[in-house]
Amino acid sequence: MTKCAYFIYGEHASGIINSQAVDVVKFYNSSGLANCSLIAFLPYPFALKTHAQLEEFIGHSLNKTRALPQRFWPLLLKWESIRLAWKIKQGEINTIICRGAFSTIIALETKNRFYKSLRVCYDGRGAVAAEHEEYGVYPHYLVPLMYESEKRSVLESDTQIAVTKNLVQYWRNRYGYRSTNHQIIPTTLDSSIILENQPEFISVNRIKNREKLNVRAEEVLLVYCGSSAGWQSFGLLFEYLNKCLSEQDNIKVLLLTQEHSLISELSLKFPGRVIRRFVKPNEVCNWLVTGDYGLLIREQSITNNCASPTKYAEYLRAGLKVITRYNLSEFSPKKLSNNYIDNILDSYNIDGVKEYSKEHHKSEYSKICS
User: Where are the beta strands (DSSP E) in 229-292?
Assistant: First the structure.
């Protein structure tokens, strides 16, 4: 059986890492596609905390290998190929799947210097250079390396994972990518939470959580789950929320995110109608089912056009209707209703949710390691 590894470098443990990295490792092993392991170079300032969380996610012990402090990456990142080569040798790895451009450039150096037969897969989660140009996400000392890393990852890796067709087109336009050796796999759900009895789970937890939050049966609850990063378009999101809360007294909002000044302003303007919670990744699904609509309102940008937001699939799994910038007219405040949830046991589309399962994309995952 093929031996592969999923490689993350300098990444903090999170729900995204659990579903898009750790769960990939679990899927390869449980499906029999490959014997897969997780190689994690832990973020330098938070190594112990991240290590403990990753061990909790994956269910067994992991080596404590720290990544370099970020400021050293431009000078020394390629030398990390030596440490990675040792892990490749120990695990007898044939294929390495790399999350993001920085981990991929390390793997490419390892391949070029030590293991010519190593198969390197670039797991492209988004338009890296465009994301920085539009939202300034990288510190200045990483920007030149970031550009080099994405270009080399796209053009020199043996195969690639793209989350959307738009991301492949971005590679073609920006870097002259001409290969067809990529696989399109959208962001997928954590396999452990795709349940056949999801409708019953929704009904039970919806009632219980709405009582906790003091949301009445006849009220409509809008839910947002995510960060406050630039591409989340908080300005656009809160413009819509302000309109909803102003025009309809029976609307409340649940924000599963960290504190933000816009949340404070909205809470002051609409007392008792804006609820904020920051929960652990494994608790997110329990709270999403409380709502009637999931909010995914993002501005037009290359970053967002190339993305496959995890939250879209998570909202569907929770039985929510999803409000995006494309259907705002359909979901104007006066049209919002919670009536549909009464029929959730009959209308829940388990097949639609399974389109975001790893099992649905088993063929694509298989080709990565073949």
Answer: 251-256, 274-277
- In CATH terms, is domain 3-184 a member of 3.40.50.2000? yes
Whole-model pTM: value is: 0.89
**Could you give the C-alpha distances from 187 to 135, 190, 306, 332, in angstroms and in order?**
21, 10, 12, 28
HSE (side-chain half, CA atoms, 13 Å) at 349: 10
**CATH architecture, domain 191-354:** 3-Layer(aba) Sandwich (3.40)
Stated as kind and residue range, the H or E segment containing 102 is helix 101-113
pLDDT score, position 1: 79
For the chain, residues classed under CATH 3.40.50.2000 are 3-184, 191-354
Instruction: Report residue 240 as tokens.
Output: 């819509």
Strands (E), 257-350: 274-277, 293-296, 321-324
Taking 70 as the pLDDT cut, the residues of the chain under it are 193-197, 228-232, 326-335, 337-351
What is the Cα–Cα distance from 280 to 287, expressed in whole angstroms?
11
